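During the no-cost extension, the postdoctoral fellow (Dr. R.K.) reprocessed legacy sequence entries with the updated structure-token encoder. One reprocessed record is reproduced below for audit purposes.
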Amino acid sequence: MPSRLLTATAIVSSLVAIAVQAAPAATPKTAICGQIKNGPHATYTGQLTQRKVSGTTWTVFATGVRCVSAMHAAPAILRWWAKAKVGSLPFRTAGFSCNKESDGHGSSGSSGCSYKGLSNIELIMTGPYSIAQLKQMFFIH
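Re-encoded structure tokens follow.
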């Protein structure tokens, strides 16, 4: 009888181990890390609103990246963004590889930066929008 219990326990343990390995990794959630006031000026057409957005307030979004890392890299990325042309070669800093993204109308109001795998940050000039408004706009809870 004890050998049956031992065998059953071994089988259950093996199945649990296989199930844990086969379970997909949790999808990282996007977070709004903060806003940077007085960044470089940008005027572009927003993809969600299709309206012109203009200003100097930038919002840092992170997916699979710690906010402290995203906020630490943001000033260097914005300094580069201010001088870069749309579609220029990627900029690399603190493990991030960044592009100055086009709004489809020849302007830019964002920089997308990949980190590792699907982890990334996005710096978007969000102008007058508050963090609460952005959470609602981008369905971030």
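Residues 30-137 form one domain. The radius of gyration is 22 Å. The remaining legacy entries will be reprocessed before the final report is submitted.
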